[in-house]
């Protein structure tokens, strides 16, 4: 029972964190003064921090759900590859934006491109998200329920959603929340099982 509760709690945390990520995130052209304001916003750090925490709770949830070695290994390696990129996105761009706002030198925002799009970080980030998606699909196949496949769909779509407008990015976060809630609800013990366990 404790293991089930742990799995449910981790799923709920994962869904909430990934839903908050696109909702909190400031959206702008991310160049010039608009980009500086977005990067310097406390919401920029808050949003991206929720994403990093979400990846950690996802990896822990896959383990708690006994997703199997393949799901666990691919998910953990994927998360390990993704987090360095998110760290730079969160803290380097925040410092860059704050310096641009304080100094009035908005050309500093141009440095966001090499921070984000260097070949090493792009390969690591892309490979990490693909591995996370593979881990989620392997988990869904192991569980075998429609709820698990809805949950997995959110992570299969994680990389493509970066090319979508803000409304679809928010919808993607809500998809992960729905999948997490549905999978967590499917794991709740039936009333008869509860009665048996409690002797009622």
Describe, in plain words, how this protein is organized in 3D.
The chain is an all-alpha fold. Helix content is 80%, strand content 0%. Helix 2 (32-40) packs across helix 4. The longest helix is centred in the middle third of the chain and has 35 residues, at 69-103. The chain is elongated, with a radius of gyration of 19 Å. The chain starts with a helix and ends with a helix. The model is unreliable at 190-200 (pLDDT under 50).
Brief sketch in words of this structure:
By secondary structure, the chain is mainly α.
Jot down its keywords.
200 residues, mainly alpha, disordered C terminus
List strands and helices in order, with pairings.
Elements (H helix, E strand, L loop, with lengths): L1 H23 L7 H9 L1 H23 L4 H35 L8 H6 L1 H25 L2 H11 L9 H21 L4 H8 L2
Instruction: Enumerate how many helices there are, as a single number.
Output: 9
Biggest sheet character: none
The H-and-E topology, N to C, reads as: HHHHHHHHH
| Helical/strand content category | mainly alpha
* Low-pLDDT residue intervals, each spanning 5 or more residues: 190-200
Proportion of residues in extended strands: under 5%
Helix content: over 70%
Shape category: elongated
**What distance separates the N and C termini?**
17 Å
Count of distinct strands: 0
Radius of gyration: 19 Å
**What is the average of the pLDDT values?**
92
């Amino acid at each position: 029972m404790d293991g089930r509760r742990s799995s449910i709690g981790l799923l709920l945390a994962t869904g909430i964190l990934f839903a908050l990520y696109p909702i909190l995130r400031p959206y702008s052209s991310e160049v010039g003064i608009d980009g500086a304001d977005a990067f310097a916003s406390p919401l920029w750090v808050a949003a991206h921090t929720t994403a990093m925490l979400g990846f950690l709770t996802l990896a822990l949830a896959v383990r708690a759900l006994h997703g199997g070695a393949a799901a666990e290994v691919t998910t953990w390696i994927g998360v390990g590859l993704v987090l360095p990129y998110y760290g730079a996105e969160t803290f380097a761009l925040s410092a860059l934006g704050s310096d641009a706002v304080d100094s009035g030198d908005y050309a500093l925002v141009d440095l966001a491109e090499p921070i984000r799009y260097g070949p090493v970080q792009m390969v690591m980030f892309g490979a990490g998200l693909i591995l996370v998606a593979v881990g989620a699909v392997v988990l869904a196949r192991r569980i075998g329920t429609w709820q698990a496949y809805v949950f997995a769909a959110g992570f299969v779509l994680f990389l493509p959603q970066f090319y979508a407008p803000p409304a679809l990015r928010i919808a993607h976060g809500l998809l992960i929340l729905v999948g997490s809630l549905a999978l967590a609800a499917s794991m709740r013990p039936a009333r008869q099982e509860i009665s048996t366990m409690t002797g009622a």
